[in-house]
Amino acid sequence: MDELATAARERGIEVHVLREGDDPAVLMSTRAGPNALGIAGGDGSLAAVAQVAIERELPFVCVPFGTRNHFARDLGLDRADPLGALAAFGGDERRIDVGRAGKRLFLNNVSLGTYASLVHRREAHRRRRVALAGIRALLRTPAHPGPLSLRVDGKPVSARVLLIANNAYELRLFDLGARPNLTEGRLHLYSAGGLLPTDWDERVGQVFELDGRPALQAAIDGEPLELQLPLVCRLEPGALRVLVPPSG
């Protein structure tokens, strides 16, 4: 992080290194007169700053500095080169879609069921400072309770995994592939009923309403939380201005 902060300052970028307890959204909201807002972090840390960028009508910069960095990958950034991503400040601007689960913005997806349960378990282990390898998490999947029983747009859905995605994913077993397009203008709702999600049902639209129980565990962009139902998930086409390193 020190090397990244130094490189950013050398480019004339104002830097604030987050400390425990800092709220990046609050910090960005109080910055006076920036030309762009950016954050170095993983998928779970990006949306709060992207929300402030939308509110302040400013471009947003993603510097990959987390574990998976799915959003950075889908933007076409080199996830192994956070220093190179700094070139986005003053780079090319694109407009991309964002999703909302209620009022909460998401850049990647909202997951329910088995995947969300694994995220919550991983967070519980992290808090106890116990490292949990991916394969061990997967081996615990059978302990997850039975399928979710929800209504989507008033129609019953029973699934062990349910994913609402900001644009289409190339789905793979145990993982999300890339999104070839961030400007498609559609949400994709994927559901799978089996213990292992090898066969997906897909619905496409700009709005999905979930109902059927008061609350349930979920993960938004890989961050665990509890969602209150009923819940409306919707797409906001082209809502986020994103800067990427200059092409060519």
Short description:
It is built from 7 helices and 16 strands. The chain has 248 residues and is an alpha+beta fold.
Structure description:
The two termini are 28 Å apart. The chain has helices spanning 2-10, 24-29, 43-55, 70-75, 82-85, 114-127, 134-139; strands at residues 37-41, 60-64, 92-101, 104-106, 109-113, 148-152, 155-159, 161-166, 171-172, 175-176, 187-192, 201-205, 207-211, 215-220, 223-228, 231-244. With 248 residues, it is of the alpha+beta class. The model is unreliable at 130-143 (pLDDT under 50). Strand 11 and strand 12 form a beta hairpin. Helices cover 23% and strands 36% of the residues. The strands form four sheets. The protein has a six-stranded antiparallel sheet, covered by helices on one side.
The arrangement of helices and strands along the chain is HHEHEHHEEEHHEEEEEEEEEEE
Secondary-structure class? alpha+beta
Total number of beta strands: 16
What Rg, in angstroms, do the CA atoms define? Answer: 18 Å
Write the layout of secondary structure elements.
Elements: H1 2-10, H2 24-29, E1 37-41, H3 43-55, E2 60-64, H4 70-75, H5 82-85, E3 92-101, E4 104-106, E5 109-113, H6 114-127, H7 134-139, E6 148-152, E7 155-159, E8 161-166, E9 171-172, E10 175-176, E11 187-192, E12 201-205, E13 207-211, E14 215-220, E15 223-228, E16 231-244
Parallel strand pairs: 1-2
Antiparallel strand pairs: 3-4, 3-16, 5-8, 5-14, 6-7, 6-13, 8-11, 9-10, 11-12, 13-16, 14-15
